[in-house]
Amino acid sequence: MKAKFYGVISPFITPFKEDYTIDEEAVKWLARHQAENGVHGIFPNSTTGEFVHLSREESITITRLVLETVGGKVWVIPGISANYTEECVSLARTFKEMGVDGAVVTPPYFFKVSPERLKVHFSTILEKVDLPLIIYNIPATTGINIPVSLYQQLAREYSHLAGAKATIESFTYFRQLIQAVKAERKDFAVLTGLDDLLLPVLMMGGDGGIMALANVAPHLHRAVYDSFISGDLAKAVENWHRLLTLTKVYDYATSFPTSVKTLLEVLGAPVKPYARSPLTPESNDVKQKIAQVAKELGLKI
Fold this sequence. Notes:
- The chain is of the alpha/beta class and 301 residues long.
- It contains 13 helices and eight strands.
- An eight-stranded parallel sheet has the order 3-2-1-8-7-6-5-4.
């Protein structure tokens, strides 16, 4: 049984104007760009989208704009993460009324709760929200590493828990997630949050990824995914090495949001490089390095 969500999904950046208000035209342009270049889905209100810097109204606005622009063409799966469980529920219900395809939620990121309390947090959301849900493990920012056993329990109890996104540099964690949870639910999606792990996770039996650079060049991710799915492993490896070259932009930039915004800027996209404080646009030196990576790969917008 195929997972509900798979392939290449972009954690949508939030384009800002110089005054740090949302650049609505840039949001619509970027959604079209991604849909036309092969994403299977878009995840607005994401980590890469600086969701912690957005008001509830802004999160709703961005999701509405993405839905209006590409809804029905690709999945729209917005983030509903908050420190208070009922806030997650409330936002998810609003998004459901808007017609989204699912939602993504992290652990709370202030209080570092126990696995038992984390189960209550996720179970409450799953019980109160009738949407396919992806639970997102990103311990570098939440301070909580979701145990594989908790995914296993929740997948067993809630059929609309659609999958896991994990931004974690552990082959063992992905192996255990795939082996343990897919044994319970073959339709449970295992998705990497790291572009460079796309092919290894697919080879282990995972389903794809929600990766920041898919904001810019999802055709590179699709080349890896499509060649792997078609059984051409040699081609998949060749395409993966091109994607690995692109991931050097992370090494140069100071954050995921600004790495993506800088890459878009050097390619001449109508997306400005502004990020909300305490994030700041990258220096000219970093821009030059990122431009060199784009040139090496022959990227164009």
